Amino acid sequence: MAAATGPQLDTALVALGWPDLLAEWPELAVPLVFRLLGETGAHAAVLDDVVRHAAGHADPGPVPLPFAGEAWVVWERDGEPGAAVDEELPLRTVAAGTELPAQAIAAGRRALGWWLLGTGRAMLTLARGHALERTQFGRPLASFQAVRHRLAETLVALEGAEAALDTAEGELGALLGKAAAGQAALTAARHCQQVLGGIGFTAEHDLHRHVRRTLVLDGLLGSTRELIREAGAQIRTAGRAPRMAQL
To answer: Which residues form a coiled coil (predicted)?
Structure first.
C-alpha cells in the first residue's frame, strides 16, 4: 500500500482478491485493509465497496454517502482529487442522496473506524519518533513529562478505540466504534501536533496529511460529535444502556 494509492491501489487490491475477501470474510478483510490504509496514508475506493456490498447494490457506480452537517458526497473511483479538506481524496459533493440501509451504514462506520485507528497510530508513530530523536535544553524531548503525558493519552485513546471496534456488533456497536475511533484520531492529531511543534505544520512533514485525512474520515457517515449525540438519544429513548461486551 505504501507504493500505490488511489486508482492504482484499487487495481492492485482487486488483483489480490479484495472483492472475494469482502464477500466471504469481511470480518477479517475490512480491519486489515482499512487499518493499513490509515497506517500508510494511502487511499482507495474500498469504503464504497463495503457500503455497496452491505446494501446489496449491484450497480457499480459510486454510492452517495452522508457527510457531517447533512451533506452528501460520492467517492469517485477514477476521479481526480477533489476540493475537500484532504486534497488527495477524490470526493465530490452532490445535492442529495438516497437513505442507505442500516446495515450498510453500520458496515461503513466499522470500516471507517479501522481507517481512523490506523491514521491515529501513524500520527503517534511520527510523534514518538520525533520525541526520541529531538533534544531540547540538552535533554531528549521524550524525557519531558508533558510530552510523555500527551503520547500516553494518545495511546490510551487508540487502544480504547481498538477495543470498541473489536466488539462492535450491530448498529449501535458500529456507531460507538466509529465515534471512539474518531475521537481517538482527533486526540492523536491534537497531541501529536503539540509534540512535533512547528515542523508538524510544514508541508515537508507527513503529519499534516494524516490530520487532514482524519478530519475528512471523521465526517463521513456521521462525525464523532453527531454520533455521540445519536447514541445518547438512543439510550435515552430505550431507558437503558445495552451491554456491548461480555467482560
So the answer is: 151-178
DSSP 76-94: -TTPPP-SSSSTTS-EEEE
Pick the CATH number of 102-238 from 3.40.630.30, 3.40.50.150, 1.20.140.10, 3.40.50.720: 1.20.140.10
For residues 47 and 12, is the Cβ–Cβ distance under 8 A? Answer: no
- The residue behind cell 466499522 is 110
| Integer Cα distance of 12 and 22 in angstroms | 15
Which parts of the chain fold into alpha helices (H)? Answer: 7-15, 18-24, 26-40, 46-55, 102-133, 145-166, 170-196, 207-219, 224-238
Rounded Cα gap, residues 205 and 126, in angstroms? 9
Helix axes 102-133, 207-219, angle to 10 degrees: 160
What is the residue extent of each domain of the chain? 102-238
pLDDT (tens digit per residue) in 130-152: 999 888 787 888 888 999 999 99
Residue identified by cell 510544514 is 202
Which among 2, 226, 39 is positioned nearest to 115, based on CA atoms? 39
pTM more than 0.85: yes
